[in-house]
Amino acid sequence: MKAITIRQPYAQAIILGLKHYETRSWPTNYRGKIFIHAGNNQNDVKKTNLVSKYNLSNLEFGVILAECEIVDCIQITESFKNKQNKTEVDFGDWNIGRYAWKLENIKLLNPAIRINGKLGLWNF
User: Fold this and answer.
1) φ, ψ at 78 (rounded to 5°)
2) CA–CA distances in Å: residue 21 to residues 46, 103, 113, 115
3) Which of 10, 25, 55, 97 has the greatest CB tally within 10 Å of its CB?
4) Quick one: which of 88, 95, 82, 100 has its CA closest to 22?
5) Helices (H), ranges, the chain
6) If DSSP codes are grouped into helix, strand and coil, which group holds residue 14?
7) Contact 71, 102 (CB under 8 A)
8) Residue 77 predicted with pLDDT over 90
9) Where are the domains of the chain?
10) Which three-class secondary structure state does DSSP give residue 44?
């Protein structure tokens, strides 16, 4: 199955239903099930106030946390960005021209699967 590595706290925001789009600089034609892998890098957690702002706790690193589906890939326009709520925009790079991958049917894995991630979409 395909997987994507996402840094924390962004991976946790998906699990909690705060983030419904994963924003990337590149589009994907892939549709279907995908694993959400929380990367090992902890630098974003130190650089952002999102953890305290949204009361995120128990962040895990270097694990597959959940399974979900990519159901769409939308190029970000000003109009599309303006339709998103503040929380959604907080958890992504919504610069015009980037791509928003729509994620649905999120299912938490218990226990999480410890594994190193990779760049891009990768096979698990």
Assistant:
1) -60, -45
2) 22, 6, 23, 23
3) 10
4) 100
5) 10-15, 43-47, 50-53, 78-82, 86-90
6) helix
7) yes
8) yes
9) 2-116
10) helix
